[in-house]
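step: validate -> pass
step: tokenize input -> pass
step: predict -> running
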Amino acid sequence: MKYIHGFFLLILVGIIFFIAIPSPIDSAPYNPPLAPELTGVLAPNNELRKAELLGKGLMNGPEDVAVDNEGRIYGGALDGRILRILKNGHVETFAETQRHPLGLHFDDRGNLIVCDAWKGLLSIDPKGTVTTLTTEAEGVPFFLTNDPDIDAHGVIYFTDASSRFHQPEYKLDLMGARPYGRLLSYDPRTGQTEVLLRDLYFANGVALSEKEDFVLVNETYRYRTIRYWLQGEKAGAHEPFIDNLPGFPPMGSPQAEMGCFGSLFPPLATHSLISSILIRF
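step: predict -> pass
step: emit ->
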């Protein structure tokens, strides 16, 4: 009996010690909405199986693509290279950011605007020369610069997915269930960076409307897309554009395919204490 008591006491001490270890997250309770039925436009299909694979085996980790005025395709790689696919299918290195380029978009001067997860908002000229445009806003540095879009005046709208967690730790942002994301704008004419929206749950893909009167931003860890008004009576206001998507809306245009990510810990995400404990593993 003495050994049994000692055994359980040892387990109890271990549990208390484990719980007392500081967690890298201060998680908040979150109850996800019930997933919509996969019917109608949400019904599964096999359309993507018809897609042609370009640069197969030569591009590791591209999260976005951009096409220049000559029809050449650009994509970022995990090793920091931006690769270019020529019309004949040949893949070459166009430039290097030394980190991880995510969102890509060409401006009207032929410069490739890049959101690098670590280095912030970059501009790469046609010769491959990299220039840093901005790395912070309101004194808060970017931790996971994500996706850009550009209006007719050259103003760049982009996201910083999290002001707390860098790219390798993005799952901590999910499990913490707290809003660290921001929607921002950068005006190359003035060099000013402005925060348009803050407290977003992993701010991801960005897309301007055709009239450029509003911009859409994906709030990945809330299964929704937010509309931020740039012009008109509602200028400066925001509202849900689409809610309760069947999966996490990813990086890239919010009109693009949604739901290509799934929740890693759906039953546990509603319990902040459990999430904080599990993240220690």
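step: describe -> Residues 254-281 have pLDDT under 50 and may be disordered.
step: cleanup -> pass
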